[in-house]
């Protein structure tokens, strides 16, 4: 056995597929996690601003959620139940409807559990939209990421992911996203959906109000309102992919709450829905378009009861004014910190992008964001890049204290000051 074979990473090199990605940028082995911290096998502690790509909005292993899950297991509750009725599912549905949907004007939406992954929620949404409208075409947008299964991938614009499909990706038209300066995104919307459009109306418009993997582009409210107007005029459904931006990540439970005109027909949720990283996804369907026949869309792991229990426990946060007040304070502090960092740089060296606790810094100079990410990791901070590597994306848990965030921001500011001006 060579010396390389005895390194902590050797087992992954020998046995895991070449497709692995995040781990390449963070070459350590993690063995423990709590709150906003990770510890590797050497005992070194890291601040986690990756948060499972936004699937840990309440931090690692929240004690109050872990306690509920372990109590459910200890009592012998069923873990896997297909779509059978269980007390765990009933509790989640009742609490989610009363605490989240009804107060936010979505009380007319029913919940479908398509399986444990976000891409499955997108697949279900696309299938249902096509079934309801009898149309095939879907409009999506530049920078969008909706998953790597073929239907969702057709609406995803990453060249790397699309190139791996192996088959043509069809029936999706990609338009400029709403914050694009050129070409005029309103013009492209009007051309595709407005009066006198050259093509037949699509089944649906699929969008993220904040693009996670696409570089933290944020949709203007007026653009979202125009999408709804054009959709209503053409019988087109509006699908919001809130998989990464939802569950409080932008400061409110849904990312589109400050754009009430959007009124989505279908909403895709996953990532932090379970509250502690257990796989879980849901599709919210406006009741009048819930036209599935029983079993027409299915999957073995629709009944992940541990995720239902954890998700119900996570909803306690949204009944706690201390949490909601802190979330508002934290999201404001993040934006203030990032603005202070960019103000200290030469004009044009970086800009603040994103929304709430899904914010970051965009650097026009190639490679800058990646160099900063590497330097932060050496300093004990785990963060990722997006937007073809031009954006440093920060996803701190909503439970990090303002004092702890300030410490992170100070380290970030010092690192950016050195590397963004080099």
TrEMBL record:
CDD domains: OAT_like. Its cofactor is pyridoxal 5'-phosphate. Pfam families: Aminotran_3. Pathway: Amine and polyamine biosynthesis; ectoine biosynthesis; L-ectoine from L-aspartate 4-semialdehyde: step 1/3. Its EC number is 2.6.1.76. Gene3D superfamilies: Aspartate Aminotransferase, domain 1 (3.90.1150.10), Type I PLP-dependent aspartate aminotransferase-like (Major domain) (3.40.640.10). InterPro entries: Aminotrans_3, Aminotrans_3_PPA_site, Dat, PyrdxlP-dep_Trfase, PyrdxlP-dep_Trfase_major, PyrdxlP-dep_Trfase_small. Keywords: Aminotransferase, Pyridoxal phosphate, Transferase. The keyword Transferase applies. One of its GO terms (molecular function) is transaminase activity. It comes from the Bacteria. Belongs to the class-III pyridoxal-phosphate-dependent aminotransferase family. This is Diaminobutyrate--2-oxoglutarate transaminase. The lineage of its organism: Bacteria, Bacillati, Actinomycetota, Actinomycetes, Kitasatosporales.
């Amino acid at each position: 056995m060579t010396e390389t074979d005895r390194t902590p990473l050797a087992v992954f090199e020998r046995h895991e597929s070449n497709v692995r990605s995040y781990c390449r940028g963070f070459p350590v082995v993690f063995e423990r996690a709590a709150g906003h911290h990770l510890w590797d096998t050497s005992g070194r502690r890291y601040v986690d601003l990756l948060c499972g790509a936004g699937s840990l909005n309440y931090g690692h292993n929240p004690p109050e959620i872990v306690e509920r899950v372990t109590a459910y297991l200890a009592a012998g509750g069923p873990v896997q139940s297909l779509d059978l009725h269980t007390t765990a599912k009933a509790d989640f549905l009742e609490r989610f409807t009363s605490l989240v949907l009804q107060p936010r004007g979505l009380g007319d939406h029913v919940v479908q559990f398509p399986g444990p992954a976000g891409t499955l929620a997108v697949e279900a949404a696309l299938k249902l939209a096509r079934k309801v409208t009898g149309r095939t075409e879907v409009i999506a947008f530049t920078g969008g990421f909706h998953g790597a299964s073929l239907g969702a991938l057709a609406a995803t614009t990453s060249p790397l992911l699309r190139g791996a499909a192996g088959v043509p990706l069809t029936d999706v038209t990609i338009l400029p996203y709403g914050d694009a300066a050129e070409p005029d995104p309103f013009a492209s919307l009007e051309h595709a959906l407005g009066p006198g459009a050259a093509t037949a109306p699509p089944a649906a418009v699929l969008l993220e109000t904040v693009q996670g993997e696409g570089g933290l582009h944020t949709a203007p409210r007026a653009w979202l309102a125009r999408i709804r107007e054009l959709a209503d005029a053409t019988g087109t459904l509006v699908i919001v992919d809130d998989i990464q931006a939802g569950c409080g990540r932008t400061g409110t439970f849904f990312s589109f709450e400050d754009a009430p005109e959007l009124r989505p027909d279908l909403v895709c949720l996953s990532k932090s829905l379970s509250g502690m990283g257990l796989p879980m996804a849901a599709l919210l369907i406006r009741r009048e378009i819930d036209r599935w026949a029983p079993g027409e869309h299915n999957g073995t792991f629709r009944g992940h009861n541990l995720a239902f229990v954890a998700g119900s426990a996570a909803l306690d946060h949204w009944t706690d004014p201390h949490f909601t007040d802190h979330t508002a304070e934290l999201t404001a502090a993040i934006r203030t910190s990032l603005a202070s960092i960019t103000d200290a740089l030469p004009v044009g060296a970086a800009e603040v992008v994103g929304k709430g606790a899904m914010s970051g810094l965009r650097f026009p100079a190639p490679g800058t964001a990646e160099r900063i990410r590497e330097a932060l990791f050496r300093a004990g901070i785990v963060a990722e890049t997006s937007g073809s590597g031009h954006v440093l994306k920060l996803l701190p848990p909503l439970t990090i204290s303002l004092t702890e965030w300030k410490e992170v921001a100070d380290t970030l500011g010092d690192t950016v000051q050195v590397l963004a001006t080099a």
